[in-house]
């Protein structure tokens, strides 16, 4: 079973991180259609910025929680696939601006 961890950019510029077992395009469509009442329902439209695929749901849940705890700058480095910048952007290692 594949599980996808994803980051959406909302219309207000904020980021939403989630996970799904369905096709990512279908899940993004659900967010944009406002099918579920939640964070993105009042921040539409949303745009898919990043996604990763996992074979085990436990790994996907751990990754989703990790990303949700990150700063905006660190999420943006991940979206840009700038993996080298991630350690420097940890809360302990970064200066907040």
Please tell me about this protein's structure:
- The chain has 97 residues and is an alpha+beta fold.
- The protein has a single domain, classed as GIY-YIG endonuclease, CATH 3.40.1440.10.
- 31% of the residues lie in helices and 22% in strands.
- The protein has 3 helices and 3 strands, in the order ββαβαα.
- The chain has helices at residues 24-33, 57-68, 72-79, and strands at residues 3-9, 15-20, 47-54.
- The protein has a 3-stranded antiparallel sheet, sandwiched between helices.
- Strand 1 (3-9) and strand 2 form a beta hairpin.
- The longest helix has 12 residues, at 57-68.
- The mean pLDDT is 93.
Count of discrete domains: 1
Strand order of the biggest β-sheet:
2-1-3
CATH class: Alpha Beta
Q: What global shape is seen?
A: globular
Structure classification: alpha+beta
CATH homology-level superfamily: GIY-YIG endonuclease
User: What percent of residues adopt helix (DSSP H or I)?
Assistant: 25-40%
The unreliable regions are none
**Percent of residues in beta strands?**
15-25%
Radius of gyration: 14 Å
Describe the sheet with the most strands: 3 strands, antiparallel
Number of strands: 3
Order of helices and strands: EEHEHH
What is the fold-level CATH name, i.e. the topology?
Answer: GIY-YIG endonuclease
Q: How many helix segments?
A: 3
Q: What is the average of the pLDDT values?
A: 93
CATH architecture: 3-Layer(aba) Sandwich
């Amino acid at each position: 079973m594949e599980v996808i961890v994803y980051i959406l950019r909302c219309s207000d510029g904020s980021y939403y991180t989630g996970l799904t077992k369905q096709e990512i395009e279908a899940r993004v469509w659900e967010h944009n259609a406002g099918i579920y009442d939640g964070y993105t329902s009042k921040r539409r439209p949303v745009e898919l910025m990043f996604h990763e695929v996992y074979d085990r749901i436990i790994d996907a849940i751990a990754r989703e929680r990790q990303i949700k705890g990150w700063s905006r700058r660190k999420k943006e480095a991940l979206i840009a696939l700038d993996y080298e910048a991630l350690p420097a952007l940890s809360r302990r290692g970064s200066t907040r601006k």
